[in-house]
Amino acid sequence: MALPIRPLPSGKALWRLLAAVLLVLPHSAVAQDIDLEPNFGSIELVSGFEPDPAEYVLYAGGVIDLGEPADSNCVGFVSDSPDLRIAYSGAEFDYPLGFISEAEVDTVILVNAPDGSWYCNDDFSEELGFNAGIEFLAPQEGIYDVWVGVYEESAIYTPATLFITEIGIGSESSEQAGSNGPEDNLGNGTAFTIDDIGNLLTNYHVVEGCDNLTFRLPGQNPVAASVIATDVDADLALLSTNLLTVPATLNLQRPRLGDEIVVYGFPLLGDLSSQGNLTTGVVSGLTGLNDDNGTFQISAQIQPGNSGGPVIDRAGNVIGVVVSMANEQYFTRQSGATPQNVNFSITGNVILNFLGTNGFKPVQATDATRYLSVADIAEQAQRYTGALLCFQE
C-alpha cells in the first residue's frame, strides 16, 4: 500500500490525467490558477518560521477519488477544494519544506507546488506509519495548495492535523520532491558556537556520514555548516558557518561532584519543542564508564538529539559536551538493573586539547563564581546553541 512520492505532470497532461478527479481545475492547471477558496484558510510562512512544526487542524478526505483514472499514480479521497493554501517565502535560505498529515486513519497528501507540479503520497516511511508526507528539499517560493485525504473512502471527514516543517522528514525509501536527487535526513544533534564568526562544536558521531549539514539557532534562519576538523577518539567535531553570533563561554576546569548543571539541546526534533529542550541535574560522577577520565557523569535527562550540546554550570559557562547515555540493555544484562539518568559528558580538558590542536582558542569564563537562575541560563544558551541536521545524498 506504500506509495512513494512522485511528481505528476502539469498543464494539459495533468488535465488528461486528473480530469475525472479534480473537475474544477482549468484546462492548463497551475497552482496560481486554482481559484477555489481553501477549506481551512490561507496562511503565509516565511522560512525560519516558529513554532516549527506549524500545526493546522482540519478534516481529512472528501468525495473526489484520486484513483480514477486507474493510472493516476495517486490513491485516496480528497475534497474538491484545497484544504490549506500556503504562501511560502524565504526559500533562499536553502532549507527543506515538509508536509506531514497525522490522523487515526491512513492519510494521503496531495500538493500543487508553485510551478504547477503535483505531488502525492500515501505512506511516507516506516517511522511515520500510515501518516503521509511530502518533502521539498529545494522548495520554491510561491503558493502551495495542500489537500489532506484519506486512503479509505469510509474514513472521510476524519479529524486530522497537518504539520508544516523545515526540520526535515527524510526517508531512505522515499524519493524527495524538488531536488536534484534523493537526500536522506539521517537525524539531528546539537551544536554550539565557540566564537563570534560562527564556528561550532559538536560530537563526531553527529556529523559522521553526513554529506550536508544545516545549523539553526532558535527563531533564526538555518545556515549551512561544514566540517573542518574531527577527532574520532574524543568524539568531537568542529564546524564552520557564516553565522555571526554571541559565543559560549567555557569553564574547562573539571567540575566537583555534586555541582549543579543545566543541559540545553534539541532532542527528538520534530516531536519536542523546536525552541529547544532544557533539563537540570548534577555532576553525579567525576569519571565515565570504566573510570574514563575523558568523560564525567551527569544526572540531567537527555534524549537522542542532545548529543553535541553544552553542559552548563550555574554560572552560565559551558563545562562539557553531551556525548552519550548509558546503554540500558548492557546494564540489564550485566546487573539486572535498569539505569536511571546515567548520562555522560566530555570533559573540559579533552575539549581544550581538541580546540588547541586545531588552532582555536575558546572564549574562557571570567567569572565562575556567580549563580544564575535556570531561566537566565536558558536565555543565554539559546543565543549560541542550535539544532544540527544531517543529510546524506
Can you walk me through this structure?
The chain has 393 residues and is mainly beta. The chain has 5 helices and 24 strands. The chain has a 6-stranded mixed sheet with strand order 1-9-8-11-6-2, with no helix packed on it. A 6-stranded antiparallel barrel has the order 13-14-17-16-15-24. The chain has a 6-stranded antiparallel beta barrel with strand order 18-19-20-23-22-21. 45% of the residues are buried.
Task: Name some characteristics of this structure.
6-stranded antiparallel barrel, 393 residues, 24 strands, mainly beta
Tally of separate helices:
5
- What is the strand tally? 24
* Strand residue percentage: 35-45%
Query: What structural class do you assign from the helix and strand content?
Result: mainly beta
Oligomeric nature of the chains: single chain
N to C succession of SSEs: EHEEEEEEEEEEEEEHEEEEEEEEHEHHE
Dominant shape: elongated
Uncertain runs: 1-33, 170-185, 327-332
Mean pLDDT: 79
Helicity, in percent? Answer: 10-25%
